[in-house]
């Protein structure tokens, strides 16, 4: 084939080309040789000399296609109306396939003459071209446009009616009179005729079929909903609606274009759910309160598609959890409240977490509702004490981590600590928990009463993961002090005593605790006359420590110290671990069997309260015998020389009856003071940065910075007043609701 332009006889060339076009469009056999010759004819007509015949070729092809489709329409109209879908589909299938081949045959005309004159996407988007029908169309697009105007438009009423009838019969399970694949093919033709367009490709489909289908479907759905509501209970209604949802989803997949799926779904939900929303919301309350899980799942399926419909349902679920939790917590009684507190909350959490996973498909909105409910339960101030939850949770951790927690494996301990962390995340007063926890941790470490150091460190790591390093900084330093103390004691016993040729009368172990890291307080240090038996060891260690650390001062915490005393005056030797003050009291009986309480107090220089706390335990253990029921200053104490215990090793502690309430009060007061200082520091930082700030904005910024507790507005106001008095800030002159920073 020569590519050189030449003079062409259009009529002769078109006669041959038209014959091939007729064969292509009717899917007749066209040989490869003929196809190549006609392909060359299209090229030669387009580049003909002296003038291109492309436009004439285009017009003749258009006339041919017009006549061909008109002939197909006449054939269809002469056939049975009952088979219009089947007959239309057969004509469309052959014509559509033929147009694809014809488009390829005219590819040179399309590429070199038509496509170059079409508008670009940018011109369509930003230019003023409301109708792209004025554009020249490629042969494939032209053929489909002719089909739309000459076939679909004349048959639209008949086709749409037949399609709607098929869908309606399918809904009523009567069976469509046409194969669903054929119906879908007809529907797809409404979209395919516009496939060459750059915009509004499904406009014909929407106007022709989707709009009447939505109207007909709405009427059907309303009729069904009204019928079911009249004849069935709400649970039965929900089951039928869910089944209808599923059937409609399958039906959409079977018949309709993908763009209609969401619209049909919304139509169904509007008629079946939203129109009956008030009734469904009323039923939801009883469904949740009775925990009818299948009905809860069905209600969720009906409401989930529209978030606003789900809000009341979700809030009802949240209120139900909060109500159950508060009710169960208010029934807590007994000495082991901390265990009951945690077990109740964890059981509620797990119960409803499982429910969310199984019923609500792990929906984040319901998970958020569970979180809000747990926050309400945990911070609901049982027994009217605002610090109760933090204290109970800390005591729970203490019980799990103490040696007295018997029968728990490492896995069980870790699991229970993980439960504690779940509750900890919901605590508003995390700083209060930290204070209680650090005090209890200090006692466990000092008295070597931890179940497992690995478990202790694991718990601190869990807290650090939740709240950050700053939250656990002091807890980490407590562990560091214990490790350093081990090394110091070892060095003292193995090196210092040997080098200085000092021989101690007792085994001696010391914990060196940094004052800033341990929640002990210097005000707890009591005046005390040290027994002679302890003096040598203490003085030797002080000399050793001063040689290691110049400038540091040791303060002995006698009330936290303990030792092991051997009772040799009995028929069987007993080794008893007790506190320092108790040891000092018993050592006074080394050379006598009776002493008066006032003499003991004067000798040891103990205050009466401290004496009572330690001596009562010795009397209760029957190591000492009291002459009166209640210890008084003139009470005579006698050494019980007939004391007997099956165990040769045992531990006794000081009475905690008054200590616990005092510690709790001190802890709460300490936290309150820390909070005030934190708020004041935050205010100064904020005002130094902002210089001028409205009262409401300042309060909001302070609250956002308090991550471990929720400050009350009165406390914030009080701190602001304090800083104004201290002249860190002042009220703005022109506005009493605004503050300015004083540099």
UniProtKB/TrEMBL annotation:
Residues of the Cullin family profile domain: 388-619
Record key words, sorted: Acetylation, Isopeptide bond, Phosphoprotein, Ubl conjugation, Ubl conjugation pathway
Statement: the UniProt record of this protein carries the keyword Isomerase: no
Pathway: Protein modification; protein ubiquitination
Protein name, entry field: Cullin-5
GO (cellular component) term, any one: cullin-RING ubiquitin ligase complex
UniProt GO molecular function: ubiquitin protein ligase binding
The keyword Phosphoprotein belongs to this UniProt entry's keyword annotation: yes
A UniProt-annotated Pfam family: Cullin_Nedd8
Family matches, as SUPFAM superfamilies: Cullin homology domain, Cullin repeat-like, Winged helix' DNA-binding domain
A single GO BP: ubiquitin-dependent protein catabolic process
Similarity-based family: Belongs to the cullin family.
């Amino acid at each position: 084939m020569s590519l050189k332009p030449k003079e062409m006889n259009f009529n002769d060339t078109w006669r041959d080309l038209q014959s091939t076009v007729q064969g292509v469009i009717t899917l007749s056999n066209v040989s490869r040789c003929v196809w190549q010759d006609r392909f060359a004819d299209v090229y030669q007509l387009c580049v003909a000399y002296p003038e291109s015949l492309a436009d004439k070729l285009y017009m003749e092809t258009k006339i041919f296609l017009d006549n061909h489709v008109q002939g197909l329409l006449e054939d269809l109209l002469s056939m049975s109306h009952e088979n219009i879908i089947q007959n239309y589909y057969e004509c469309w299938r052959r014509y559509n396939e033929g147009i694809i081949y014809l488009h390829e045959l005219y590819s040179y005309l399309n590429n070199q003459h038509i496509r170059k004159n079409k508008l670009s996407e940018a011109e369509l988007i930003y230019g003023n071209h409301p109708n792209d029908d004025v554009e020249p169309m490629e042969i494939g697009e032209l053929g489909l446009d002719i089909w739309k105007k000459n076939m679909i438009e004349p048959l639209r009423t008949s086709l749409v009616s037949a399609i709607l009838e098929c869908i309606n019969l399918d809904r009523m399970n009567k069976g469509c009179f046409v194969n669903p694949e054929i119906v879908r093919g007809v529907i797809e033709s409404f979209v395919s005729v516009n496939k060459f367009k750059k915009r509004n490709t499904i406009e014909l489909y929407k106007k022709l079929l989707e709009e009447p289908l939505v109207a007909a479907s709405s009427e059907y759905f309303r009729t069904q909903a009204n019928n079911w509501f009249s004849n069935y209970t709400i649970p039965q209604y929900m089951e039928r609606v869910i089944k209808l949802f599923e059937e409609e989803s399958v039906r959409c997949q079977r018949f309709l274009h993908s763009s209609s799926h969401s619209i049909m779904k919304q139509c169904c939900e509007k008629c079946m759910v939203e129109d009956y929303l008030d009734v469904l919301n009323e039923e939801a309350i009883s469904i949740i309160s009775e925990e009818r899980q299948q009905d809860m799942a069905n209600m969720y399926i009906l409401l989930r598609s529209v978030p606003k419909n789900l809000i009341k349902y979700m809030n009802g679920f949240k209120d139900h959890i909060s109500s159950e939790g508060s009710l169960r917590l208010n029934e807590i009684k007994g000495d082991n409240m901390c265990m009951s507190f945690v077990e109740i909350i964890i059981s509620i959490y797990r119960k409803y977490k499982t429910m969310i996973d199984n019923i609500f498909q792990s929906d984040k909105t319901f998970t958020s509702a569970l979180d809000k409910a747990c926050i309400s339960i945990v911070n609901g101030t049982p027994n009217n004490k605002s610090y109760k939850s933090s204290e109970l949770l800390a005591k729970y951790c203490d019980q799990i981590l103490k040696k007295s927690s018997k029968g728990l494996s490492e896995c069980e301990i870790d699991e229970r600590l993980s439960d504690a962390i779940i509750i900890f995340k919901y605590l508003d007063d995390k700083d209060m928990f930290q204070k209680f926890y650090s005090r209890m941790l200090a006692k466990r470490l000092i008295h070597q009463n931890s179940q497992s150091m690995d478990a202790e460190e694991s718990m601190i790591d869990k807290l650090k993961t939740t709240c950050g390093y700053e939250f656990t900084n002091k807890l980490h330093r407590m562990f560091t002090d214990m490790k350093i103390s081990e090394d110091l004691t070892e060095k003292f016993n193995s090196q210092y005593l040997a080098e200085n040729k000092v021989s101690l009368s007792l085994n001696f172990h010391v914990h060196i605790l940094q004052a800033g890291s341990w929640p002990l307080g210097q005000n707890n240090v009591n005046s005390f006359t040290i027994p002679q038996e302890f003096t040598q060891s203490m003085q030797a260690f002080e000399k050793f420590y001063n040689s290691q650390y110049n400038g540091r001062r040791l303060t002995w915490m006698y009330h936290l110290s303990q030792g092991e005393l051997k009772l040799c005056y009995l028929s069987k030797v007993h080794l008893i671990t007790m506190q320092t003050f108790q040891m000092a009291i018993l050592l006074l009986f080394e050379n006598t069997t009776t002493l008066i309480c006032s003499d003991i107090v004067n000798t040891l220089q103990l205050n009466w309260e401290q004496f009572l706390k330690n001596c009562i335990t010795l009397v209760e253990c029957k190591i000492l015998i009291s002459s009166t029921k209640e210890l008084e200053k003139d009470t005579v104490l006698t050494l019980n020389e007939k004391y007997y215990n099956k165990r040769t090793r045992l531990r006794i502690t000081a009475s905690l009856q008054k200590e616990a309430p005092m510690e709790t009060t001190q802890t709460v007061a300490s936290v309150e003071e820390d909070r005030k200082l934190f708020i004041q520091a935050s205010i100064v930082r904020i005002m130094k940065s902002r210089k001028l700030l409205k009262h409401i904005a300042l309060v909001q910024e302070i609250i956002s910075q308090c991550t471990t507790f929720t400050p009350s507005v009165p406390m914030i106001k009080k701190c602001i007043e304090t800083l104004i008095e201290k002249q860190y800030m002042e009220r703005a002159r022109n506005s009493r609701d605004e503050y300015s920073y004083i540099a």
